[in-house]
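User: Hey, quick favor. My workstation is busy. Could you predict this chain's structure for me?
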Amino acid sequence: MNLNTTPVGDRVHIGIFGRVNTGKSSLLNALVGQPAAIVSDSEGTTTDPVSKTLEIKDIGPAVIFDTAGINDLTGLGQQRFEKTAQVLGKTDIAIINADAVTGIGEPENKLAALLSEKKIPYITVINKADLLTSALTGEYLTVSAKTGEGIDRIYTKLAELVKKHSQTPKFPVISDLIAPGDVIVLVIPIDELAPKGRLILPQQQTVREIVDRNAIAVLTSEKTLEDTLSALGKKPRMVVTDSGVFPAVSETVPKDVPLTSFSVLFARHKGELQIFTDGLNALGRLQDGDKILIAEGCTHRMNTNDGHPADGTRKCEEIGTVKIPRILRELTGRDLIFETVNGNYFPENISQFSLVIHCGGCMLGSAEMRRRIEICKQNNVPVTNFGIFLAKAAGVDFRRAFRCIGINTDYGV
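Assistant: No problem, here it is.
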């Protein structure tokens, strides 16, 4: 478990876009200071998006994407453009990379218009300045990825845009709810769904904030919770549990001890708590034959790397493809139809669905998660997330869970 690595979802996402062979890959390498992307004089060298995580002065943790050229009109080029469009959806700040020889033309103007339409701030860079024979004028930066000229100016401009358009989380995960010296008990079930030998990302982030606050994190499972509370010698400031065992934990934790779940903390952290709890109201309206979209921001298959057979058989239930559909059918008593998407793909038209249940989005940037929620709003499709749904199914006392974070309501759940 690496507590010092900033999660991808909490990094500023910077995308480099432009025509084929304009030096996008060279620019990525110059920005990160190492050969992260393959560079060649041949057109179309970059096929799938390439990303690199780094720390940038005055910006902080970031991830930069190099993308395929937007003007490849071949059949394969169209597929590459679709991958580029997916990167566009999760971009916080964009760089339009043009060629000093070719200059600014229709492709760059169309890209600028698209970015403006999507409200994505951007800068325009004229790369290959070492090939210029005369000075250029205009609202763009002249740089040379080959010589390093102008790279510092890109960082300065990016920092200005990040500061102006910052989309930081609405709240910390937990640090604003606790004080130095507080004891926080984290209940972490160890079952077939738990990853072998590590904590999942939300648990890692919670531990890190507790430690940074100079508070004390005590980790236990629901099976040892009672003994843990007895051994402490004093009441903990708060207990945070996995939603799946909330009812059992609630019976063990004294009523005067604040209790909430990781899913509630993270929905609050990203400003999505009311959106996702409102989405639960759709459960009572579902009918036989309704379609449900299950969306995951990462891809994880149970294969030999996870200790599972190579033929794809499973020792336990995958949460998105098996567990949630089964629980939802049992909870509603309806014959429902499920479709799943994962990774970077999320459909633009979801009007055929009656409900979207999304993962926690820990591997998605804030821009991408906002985009997906906005698509749901535009299509009038209610949306909730895995943790909030599972909390509802497990019979979580939302009023108690919300009171723990200073909200005296259950949002009607």
